[in-house]
Structures are given as structure tokens and as C-alpha cells.
């Protein structure tokens, strides 16, 4: 289904889609196409129990690396270890050269809401990041554990112990997570209830500019949608979510499923950068902006 921007009134962009349609029927019963009785937690647990989880756990360490020479070295090591294959990487390169669709509409940078500091107590995981309904099952509270631990995410990390290892304070990480949840996760989840996080806060790697170790970024997938739908949804995300950086990411390793990487800077001056990556590299070369449909990979 194509993304169709609707009219704008009072600063609110209305989007035509089928996910929230009141006029979809099955056997004369009104339904909503996005309804999933199992919910996003089931999708998380399914991913963790997938045969490809071990591969995913190793490949994810490349995510966030910006030096292509380092990426090449790490990918070569994974090929040598039999974790991924050179054929997989070649397939991704071919898809990058021949995208099915392209949209280079620029994002107008904008800052979102400042939710203030997180009230961190003795139990860091219980720190509240959001209060109020935001999804189809009327969840009313999001905590640090909700976005850093199973079953909230596929790849869990402990803020209380890992924050210091990343050169951050627990308070700073929780404040960043709160701003990310309020400005990115909640509005996206409200529009796409089938969304689930694969990770947010992570242990730092070799890239000092990565926003995951600061609690400023999250990776998002959607239960049961096609690869091409990630491109369609990416257009909506670009036009309706306030973010610092947005990556439409594809891969030809592991599950082969795409994801959306989104970050938010609570300090302000969010850049609104939009890129498309294939196997952890910009599909059109360093710095090239735009959304490219690489579902043919």
C-alpha cells in the first residue's frame, strides 16, 4: 500500500492509510488491519527464539559503526568465521545499485518536547519514562526496563551497570531514554501498533559517536510486514516524527529483515538526517541522504 500524505490543518498532518481504517470488514464484522492479538512482546520473544538469533547477536555489533574501513574488516572477520557469507554481502551491494524506489524529499529539522529529567530511584529499571495510554492494549506506563530488557526488546542491556562502562551517568542515560520515548517511540507506536523495539540502550563499541550507548537511539521492526512496507512506513516516519537521525536499514544476513533506526537529542538542534543503509553502510555512499527501497535484496 503506498504512503499517501493527507491534508494539513492547524499544524497536524493527516495521513491516509489502512492501519486505522474504520471501514474494513471481514464477514461483515468491522476490523482494523493492524490488530494483533499476540502483541509486540510475542514478536520480541519469537525473534529471540529464532534460529538466526545467534547470528543477529554478532552482526548487531556492527550497527552504529561509521568507519567503512572498520566495517569491511569486521565483515571480513564474520565471513571468515562462517557467521555470514560473501554472497550475502554481494547481494546487498547489487540491491543498493538498483533500488526499486527512491524518495529524496528533505526532512525539515525540528525539536520535539522536552519531558524533563527522569526520576531515577534505587531501582533503575523501574524508572518511569512515560505515563498514559499509547498502544492498542492501553499500556499506561513505560519504564526503563520496558525499552532495555526482555520482553520489551530483543537485545537487552542493563542501564544500571553498563551506563558507567559507556562513560555515561545512569541519570543521563535515563534522561535520554525519556526524551526518546516521548518524542519517537510513543508517537510511532500509536500510529503503528505492530511496532516493537529490537534494542535501544546498548554497550558502547568502537564508534564514539554512536547514540545507542547514550540511550539516545532505538531500532524498530514491525510484526509481520513485508520488506517493501518498511520503505513505505519510512516515508511516514520521516514526515511525522521529530528525530535527530533516521536510518532505513536493510541487510542480507541473518533474518534479512529491515529495521528503522531512530535517535533523538534532548539537548535540541535535532538534525533530521535521513539515510538508507545496506549491511551497515550508506547504500549510496557516505553522506548521501534519502530513502531507497532495497526490498529486492
Question: Which helices and strands appear, and what pairs or packs with what?
Answer:
Layout lengths: L3 E6 L2 E5 L7 E3 L2 E3 L7 H10 L4 H7 L8 H13 L5 H12 L3 E3 L24 E4 L9 E3 H5 L10 H7 L4 H22 L3 E5 L17 E6 L4 H14 L4 E6 L8 E5 L9 E6 L2 E2 L8 E3 L4
Parallel strand pairs: 10-12
Antiparallel strand pairs: 1-2, 3-4, 5-14, 6-7, 8-9, 9-11, 10-11, 12-13
Walk me through this protein's architecture.
The chain has 297 residues and is an alpha+beta fold. It has a single domain, classed as 2-Layer Sandwich (Muramoyl-pentapeptide Carboxypeptidase, domain 2), CATH 3.30.1380. It contains 8 helices and 14 strands. It has helices spanning 39-48, 53-59, 68-80, 86-97, 144-148, 159-165, 170-191, 227-240; strands at residues 4-9, 12-16, 24-26, 29-31, 101-103, 128-131, 141-143, 195-199, 217-222, 245-250, 259-263, 273-278, 281-282, 291-293. The chain has a 6-stranded mixed beta sheet. A two-stranded antiparallel sheet has the order 1-2. The longest helix is centred in the middle third of the chain and has 22 residues, at 170-191. It is globular. The model is unreliable at 7-37 (pLDDT under 50).
Poorly predicted ranges = 7-37
What coarse outline follows from CA principal-axis ratios? globular
> What's the number of structural domains?
1
Largest sheet: 6 strands, mixed
Q: What is the helix/strand order?
A: EEEEHHHHEEEHHHEEHEEEEE
Q: What is the oligomeric state here?
A: single chain
Beta percentage is 15-25%
Q: Quick check: average pLDDT?
A: 86
CATH topology: Muramoyl-pentapeptide Carboxypeptidase, domain 2
What is the CATH level 1 assignment? Alpha Beta
Radius of gyration: 19 Å
